[in-house]
Amino acid sequence: MRVYEGKAKRIVPLDEGKVIMEFKDDATAFNGGKKGEFKGKGSLNAQISAVLFRVLEERGVKTHFIGVAGDNRLIVERLRMYPLEVVVRNVVAGSLKKRLPLAEGTELAEPIVELYYKDDDLGDPMINRYHAKALGISEGEIDEMERIALKVNEILKEYFASRGVVLVDFKLEFGKNGRGEIVLGDEISPDTCRLWDARTKGSLDKDVFRFDRGDLMEAYGELYRRLVGDS
Asked: What are its E.C. numbers (predicted)?
């Protein structure tokens, strides 16, 4: 029995506290206002997520990733998810350029961390720590999620840079496992990261679909090739 289906994934239960995370070929943008389907997109997102989860695990970041169960499926630890998205920004782009008087592409002196409340009906609004605490999330839990998010940023910035990619910004989701640990969940893919080619500044992420900037599958495929190649 399916326990959850979102815009981009299905979650199917297994025994012993595990679930299968199945990536769909659907693409959505602007809170579901724009939709499309791209054959093979789910497989690319699953395989890219697997690569990046392994990189993080090797560097000491605890994630829910257990293994690959097929082209578009990952086996992951079942978590009690927090209703938060933790966004880390390294370069001015997207909604940040609407809130700060800085040009798109401006490199930030230090990362900016933002919190968003996950609720489609409310449009996933940005919130602060006081809002998060009002939702029952403790100061310590917020501190831990932000600490992990900044460590993820440090690791992935270096990793992507070594492959000619700029990690502009990305969103993470966290949950608590059966042992009471806060661990990284959801996915890390071009659906959840803003990634630019270091030379051309061309998009290698969902902005290709969002703003009609070319062939989405070509962009995702190029990113995957860079991650699994030797360069």
From this structure: 6.3.2.6
Structural domain contains residue 225: no
Determine the Cα–Cα distance for residues 173 and 86; give it in Å rounded to an integer: 6
Taking the alpha carbons of 95, 101, 103, 105 in that order, is the dihedral positive or negative? negative
| Domain with 137 in it | 80-215
CA-to-CA dists, residue 198 to 94, 105, 151, 164, angstroms: 18, 11, 22, 5
For the chain (231 residues), the mean pLDDT of every run of 10, in chain order, is: 80 92 95 92 98 98 97 97 98 97 98 97 96 98 98 98 98 97 98 98 98 97 92 42
- Structure-block tokens of residue 9: 């994934």
Q: What pTM did the predictor assign? A: 0.96
